[in-house]
Write a structure and sequence with these properties.
Blueprint (H helix, E strand, L loop, with lengths): L4 H11 L5 H40 L5 E5 L4 E2 L6 H4 L4 E15 L4 E9 L11 E3 L11 E5 H7 L6 E13 L2 E15 L9 E5 H7 L6 E2 L1 E6 L5 H4 L8 E5 L1 H43 L1 H9 L4 H32 L1 H7 L17 H18 L1 H8 L3 H4 L4
Parallel strand pairs: 4-9, 6-8
Antiparallel strand pairs: 1-11, 1-12, 2-10, 3-4, 3-7, 3-11, 5-8, 6-9, 7-8
Helix pairs in contact: 1-9, 2-7, 2-9, 2-11, 7-9, 7-11, 7-12, 9-11, 9-12
Length: 402
């Protein structure tokens, strides 16, 4: 089989001779360092992606991702959502919403939350998280609510119990003065997302919420948008809307949380990327030793007609081969470890009760390919200086004392 001479010699140098034990050891060490670095980076990024996806599903899937309201007061309701909203990119569903901050009181405790008035027949992600009850029980005029499990535990209530809901967005006059609008509601169901949203949201029928807020029957707070990806609000927020329409989204309440997750993922990636950088420096050390040992051989190759560029390619092939082998093997081992991480932790007896019993893992192929390619490029850059030193060898000086 034909091999270009530079690649053939570079591969032979990579395997080394039995007498080159130390340089071979340093070369293997640099390959192992890149393997460990890429493995750790792929594993950690997969776990961080899993946490981010879990937060996105549990929190942003239930709470309103984006709401279009009027600058002053409620909006008029319509039989069908406005075309200006249904035609927006990345929007999958549009439904009417009545929303208000509320205080919820039971016989045992008191807490604050956000009241969401929805149409039970419309699409809503909370359906998939119901533990007890159903959204169909939110019949107009019955004044029923569905609480998060965290809020139900805090209030000490179960399905069938009564809670008093007081809204801050409306008030009423009484003989003792102006007080918030309030009414008794019956707990008709409990949902559980496994996040702090369970302590903050409660759902009721849109008509009952409208009456509590003193809305007219044809009025709503705004239109709720469901998106294919909640992070699309970054671009949609700049989309032009009709006059007096106001855009609000989840970033006002949860933006700092996801920024913290993204920052933590970036810092972890940077720290683990330094492992690959250290391994790249090992490639420089190994190649410099090889260049010093091979000066006479390089001089002989040059006297036989090999160009400086071919000599440069020899040592770049040798150094880059360590990077390629380390990056590819690290990426494969990282994927295998990520897929079996929970099984390994269970075998070691590690309990993860605080995060649902298992680590969320999400492997993104594009991200893994990017990590592998960056590791290869870094190792390739590490070969430039030693390879240039080898290509600069002068045959007469190198063979003077041979």
């Amino acid at each position: 089989m034909f091999h270009p001479v530079s690649f053939f010699i570079g591969w032979r140098y990579l395997k080394g001779r039995s007498a080159d034990k130390f340089s071979r050891f340093v070369s293997y060490l640099s390959t192992a360092g890149i393997t460990i670095g890429v493995l750790a980076l792929v594993t950690v990024l997969s776990v961080m992606n899993g946490f981010e996806q879990q937060l996105k599903t549990r929190i942003l899937g239930v709470m309103p991702q984006a709401v279009i309201s009027m600058d002053h007061g409620p909006m008029p309701n319509a039989n069908t959502p406005p075309k200006e909203l249904t035609q927006l990119p990345h929007v999958t569903h549009v439904s009417p919403l009545v929303r208000s901050e509320a205080i919820i009181q039971s016989a045992e405790s008191l807490t604050a939350g956000t009241l969401l008035g929805i149409n039970p027949s419309d699409y809503d992600a909370v359906k998939a998280n119901m533990v007890v009850g159903s959204l169909k029980s939110l019949i107009p005029g019955t004044y029923r609510v569905i609480l998060g499990q965290g809020m139900a535990v805090q209030l000490g209530v179960q399905v069938g119990d009564t809670v008093r809901v007081m809204v801050t967005g409306a008030s009423q006059y009484t003989p003792i003065g102006r007080i918030p609008s309030q009414r008794n509601f019956t707990v008709a169901g409990i949902f559980n997302t496994g996040s702090d949203v369970d302590q903050q949201l409660l759902f009721t029928n849109i008509q009952d919420a409208g009456r509590l807020l003193h809305y007219y029957p044809d009025q709503i707070t705004g239109w709720r948008l469901f998106l294919t990806n909640p992070f699309d609000v970054v671009t949609l927020a700049h989309h032009p809307l009709p006059k007096d329409w106001h855009w609000s989204d989840w970033r006002a309440q949860r933006g700092e949380l996801f920024q913290a997750v993204q920052m933590e993922k970036n810092i972890m990636g940077l720290m683990l990327g330094l492992i690959v950088g250290v391994a790249a420096f090992n490639i420089i050390s190994a190649l410099i030793m090889v260049v010093m040992e091979k000066q006479a051989e390089v001089a002989i190759l040059k006297t036989q007609g090999m160009s400086s560029f071919q000599v440069l390619t020899i040592f770049m092939v040798q150094g880059a081969s360590s990077g390629v082998l380390g990056a590819v093997s690290g990426g494969i081992l990282g994927i295998i470890l990520s897929l079996n991480l929970n099984g390994i932790l269970s075998f070691l007896g590690v309990k993860l009760l605080m995060i649902g019993g298992s680590l969320p893992v999400l492997i993104e192929p594009v991200q893994i390919i990017t990590v592998i390619v960056c590791a290869i490029l870094l190792s390739l850059l590490a070969t430039l200086y030693p390879s240039y030193r080898a290509a600069s060898v002068r045959p007469a000086e190198a063979l003077r004392y041979e």
